[in-house]
């Protein structure tokens, strides 16, 4: 390999370059009003999830039957549920659950989809056909129906939701990664690497991946709201996160059962989901326009 | 074109075949004896043995799969564990309600989406265009089941404009009952379709025949409504096939929230009672529906746009 000092220098320059690139992207997003709104909403959401334990004014699972089904007040910002639990505290803790599902599921799916997609695009024809068929098959299930079938078989839990989300979104990432790999596999820098005898791992991991990961990250950002909604939806059906863990969906489940007694639970549980999904969508859309305007046509 | 149609249908059949096999194997791969899960822990060994034999679970796996396929080809999806009724019959009884909901959503969302999209494209970069773009993104992002809950709360429980449960009898009552659920699950499609129509409309407006129409001095209104829109709505026809999958998913929530009968409600009810044959039957039918509708929309697309035929 080359002289260690210059190698180090290039690395430093590389990381500098990456950082300024990231700053440029964030700056570009913040310039767009929608992007800024998205950035703020997502920021608040992540902040709530990270510091939930310190933010909550009451114990999110602590019951206080005396104060059940109250409307908003200074003690209980968003009222209480049928067991006298503080809705606001449950909401804040719920954001943690939402993020706990969304992040590992989306990043896991992105990583596996990227790997499989690159193998499909770069590997032999039969493997490509096989993987494409697998992708198409998984996509042929309506998402919620697939989720319900899996939940029926293995039972509801946080892991089940993560598995379902990963299984259903791997094909999306896989397809995009495959198309990109196919487009790049005969480009000159890849051919040059191959003629120099680079290993498959090196070609895909070091040369191919950086060219694909940008597009996939944007897809991932736009996928997060869908995942948050799916988690809340399954928990609403009683097939997601198990009680007493506070999830936005289970908040709505309680609210639905008590819809004729109090409107507050549904309002308090529904609005955060809408606001959070809007925030992530605004951010994702702006991110896409900033990172790669060509993607605009695909959706 | 005929070759394409045959190949596309063959692909659909292959996908459905793999999907069914995958689901069948998934059921068998799950740890635990399905019979014990179905009957609960307190069932007697005799009862377990009789159900095992009735379901054919004592046969080798490939034979079970063969039996399953040959029965499915005859339209037999097994029997309900509790009532002993045919699953096919139960599913087919619920299917019309779900289809009614899905078609109602497609109709209203496509109408409104096309109007929004066409208007935005006719007035690009104006305040209206930006507002429609903002509304479209917001509609797309809003999760259907939250919209369903909020609209139930506001329009059915508080204002009492619409009924909160059931499907109704007679045409107008049915429309009245389907309105809110269809509103909830169609909302995000208004956004999708508006964006799609706007993009394709802008493309069409840049073409020669539109320039010619303008040169002939036709009114802008006539150009948009008659000459451009006809071409610009073609992509809408083809996304409706893919939309079936999303709507089938969203319909599950709408059926629960509004206590409507349908495939989704059937699946949820069957999960709570551990009625696995019904769950699998309903999931299979909805998957088949989705595969078929994507195949049809691909074929329609290929018929309208010969370039897309090469992709298969």
Could you walk me through the main structural features you see in this protein, from its secondary elements to its overall organization?
The complex is a heterodimer of chains A (299) and B (312). By secondary structure, chain A is mainly alpha-helical. Chain A has one domain (31-298): Orthogonal Bundle (MetI-like fold), CATH 1.10.3720. Chain A contains eleven helices and no strands. Chain A is elongated, with a radius of gyration of 23 Å. The two termini of chain A are 44 Å apart. Mean pLDDT of chain A is 80; it is low at 1-6. By secondary structure, chain B is mainly alpha-helical. Chain B contains 13 helices and no strands. Chain B has helices at 2-29, 34-39, 45-54, 61-73, 87-122, 127-141, 144-158, 171-205, 208-215, 220-232, 234-257, 263-272, 276-304. In chain B, helix 8 (171-205) packs antiparallel against helix 11, helix 9 (208-215) runs antiparallel to helix 10 and helix 11 (234-257) packs antiparallel against helix 13 (276-304). The longest helix of chain B has 36 residues, at 87-122. Chain B starts with a helix and ends in an 8-residue tail after the last helix. The relative contact order of chain B is 0.14. At the A-B interface, helix 5, helix 6, helix 9, helix 10 and helix 11 of A face helix 1, helix 6, helix 7, helix 11 and helix 12 of B.
Main beta-sheet strand count, sense and barrel state of chain B: none
Based on secondary structure, the structural category of chain B is mainly alpha
Helix content of chain B: over 70%
In the CATH scheme, what's the topology name of chain A? MetI-like fold
The overall pLDDT of chain B, averaged over residues, is: 83
Query: Uncertain runs of chain A with pLDDT below 50, 5 residues or more?
Result: 1-6
- The CATH superfamily name of chain A is MetI-like
- Write the element-wise H/E pattern of chain B from the N-terminal end onward: HHHHHHHHHHHHH
The averaged pLDDT of chain A comes out at: 80
The domain count of chain A comes to 1
| CA gyration radius of chain B, whole angstroms | 24 Å
């Amino acid at each position: 390999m080359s002289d260690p000092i210059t190698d180090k220098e290039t690395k430093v320059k590389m990381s500098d370059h990456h950082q300024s690139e990231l700053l440029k992207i964030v700056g570009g997003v913040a310039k767009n009003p929608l992007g800024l709104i998205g950035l703020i909403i997502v920021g608040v959401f992540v902040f709530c999830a990270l510091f939930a334990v310190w933010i909550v004014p009451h114990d999110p699972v602590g019951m206080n039957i005396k104060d059940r089904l109250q409307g908003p007040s200074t003690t209980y910002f968003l009222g209480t549920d049928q067991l006298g639990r503080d809705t606001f505290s449950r909401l804040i803790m719920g954001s943690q659950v939402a993020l706990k599902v969304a992040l590992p599921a989306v990043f896991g799916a992105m990583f596996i989809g990227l790997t499989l997609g690159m193998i499909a695009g770069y590997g032999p024809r039969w493997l490509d056909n096989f993987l494409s068929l697998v992708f198409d098959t998984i996509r042929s299930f309506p998402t919620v129906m697939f989720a319900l079938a899996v939940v029926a078989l293995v039972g509801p839990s946080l892991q089940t939701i993560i598995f379902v989300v990963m299984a259903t979104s791997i094909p999306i990432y896989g397809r995009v990664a495959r198309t990109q790999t196919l487009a790049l596999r005969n480009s000159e820098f890849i051919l040059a690497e191959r003629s120099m005898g680079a290993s498959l791992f090196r070609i895909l991991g070091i040369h191919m991946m950086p060219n694909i990961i940008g597009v996939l990250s944007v897809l991932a950002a736009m996928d997060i709201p869908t995942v948050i909604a799916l988690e809340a939806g399954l928990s609403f059906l009683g097939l997601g996160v198990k009680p007493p863990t506070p999830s936005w969906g289970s908040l709505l489940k309680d609210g639905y059962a008590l819809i004729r007694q109090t409107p507050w639970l549904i309002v308090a549980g529904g609005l955060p989901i809408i606001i959070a999904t809007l925030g992530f969508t605004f951010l994702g859309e702006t991110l896409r326009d900033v990172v790669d305007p060509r993607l605009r046509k695909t959706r | 074109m005929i070759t394409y149609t045959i190949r596309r249908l063959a692909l659909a059949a292959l996908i459905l075949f793999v999907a069914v096999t995958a689901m069948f194997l998934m059921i068998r791969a799950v740890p635990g004896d399905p019979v014990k899960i179905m009957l609960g822990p307190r069932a007697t060994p005799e009862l377990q043995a009789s159900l095992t034999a009735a379901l054919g679970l004592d046969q080798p796996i490939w034979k079970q799969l063969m039996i399953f396929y040959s029965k499915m080809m005859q339209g037999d999806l097994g029997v309900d564990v509790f009532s002993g009724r045919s699953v096919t019959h139960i599913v087919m009884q619920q299917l019309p309600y779900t289809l009614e909901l899905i078609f109602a959503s497609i109709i209203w969302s496509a109408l409104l989406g096309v109007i929004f999209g066409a208007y935005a494209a006719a007035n690009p970069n104006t305040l209206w265009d930006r507002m429609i773009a903002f509304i479209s993104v917001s509609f797309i992002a809003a999760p259907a089941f939250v919209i369903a809950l909020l609209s139930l709360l506001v329009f059915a429980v508080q204002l009492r404009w619409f009924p909160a449960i059931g499907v109704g009898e007679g045409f107008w009552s049915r429309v009245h009952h389907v309105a809110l659920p269809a509103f909830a699950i169609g909302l995000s499609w208004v956004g999708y379709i508006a964006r799609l129509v706007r993009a394709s409309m802008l493309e069409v407006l840049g073409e020669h025949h539109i320039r010619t129409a303008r040169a002939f001095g036709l009114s802008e209104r006539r150009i948009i409504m008659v000459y451009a829109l006809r071409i610009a709505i073609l992509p809408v026809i083809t996304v409706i096939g893919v939309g079936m999958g999303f709507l089938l998913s969203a319909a599950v929530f709408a059926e629960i929230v509004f206590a409507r009968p349908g495939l989704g409600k059937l699946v949820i009810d069957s999960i709570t009672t551990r009625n696995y044959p019904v769950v699998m039957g309903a999931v299979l039918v909805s998957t088949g529906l989705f595969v078929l509708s994507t195949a049809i929309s691909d074929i329609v697309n290929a018929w309208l746009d010969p370039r897309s035929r090469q992709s298969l």
